[in-house]
């Protein structure tokens, strides 16, 4: 059988065409980027003698290309992280107070939109905990993180918070339909938390004012 005479460039091109066939699994974005860089460097090396400046030009171009790729990857990751935090976070892109979330929840419940009602009511709980300084506001906080953070601050409510966050996740990510039972569970939790967490400033200021007035009299 006669030997097949094929040069390096032809072999490289043949390999690229073979790997491009649909029968082979597609590489990830990072793998494709790495292959593109390999291909570019391969072409530069092959044509190095014909490029003005020779290897000096190739070295400078390679450094610029690598730096550009690193910057592009960092920007892409930051953008994806920001978008993910906005879309997957507990509050989404809305900026509402706890009271506004409760109004939205009751409005949804009044028309039987239990899924929306569940989402807004848990958001009301989260916002209320932030407004009462029980939790520090954290951009992109998820329902699971809310249950964890609030459960550490309020251990007596940890189980109920975990159950509420599960309902939220089932409706939001599991695409399960909400129901009145789930909504009432979160509503009860909201009311219990509001009764448990009494703002200290108002009571203390009244007591302090009464004592001061008593002394003055």
Describe this structure in words.
The protein is mainly α. The chain has 2 domains: 63 residues, no CATH class; 102 residues. It is 72% helix and 0% strand. It has 9 helices and no strands. It is elongated, with a radius of gyration of 30 Å. The chain starts with 7 loop residues before the first helix and ends with a helix.
Overall body shape: elongated
Strand content: under 5%
End-to-end separation in angstroms reads: 118 Å
Largest sheet: none
Structural class: mainly alpha
Mean pLDDT: 77
Question: Which range best describes the helical content: under 10%, 10-25%, 25-40%, 40-55%, 55-70% or over 70%?
Answer: over 70%
Low-confidence stretches: 81-87, 200-217
Helix-strand sequence: HHHHHHHHH
**What's the structural domain tally?**
2
List the helices and strands and how they pair.
Elements (H helix, E strand, L loop, with lengths): L7 H12 L9 H18 L7 H35 L9 H13 L3 H18 L11 H11 L4 H15 L7 H17 L3 H17 L1
Helix pairs in contact: 2-3, 4-5, 5-7, 5-8, 6-7, 7-8
What labels would you give this structure?
disordered C terminus; single chain; 2 domains; 217 residues
Summarize the structure.
With 217 residues, this protein is mainly α. The protein contains nine helices and no strands.
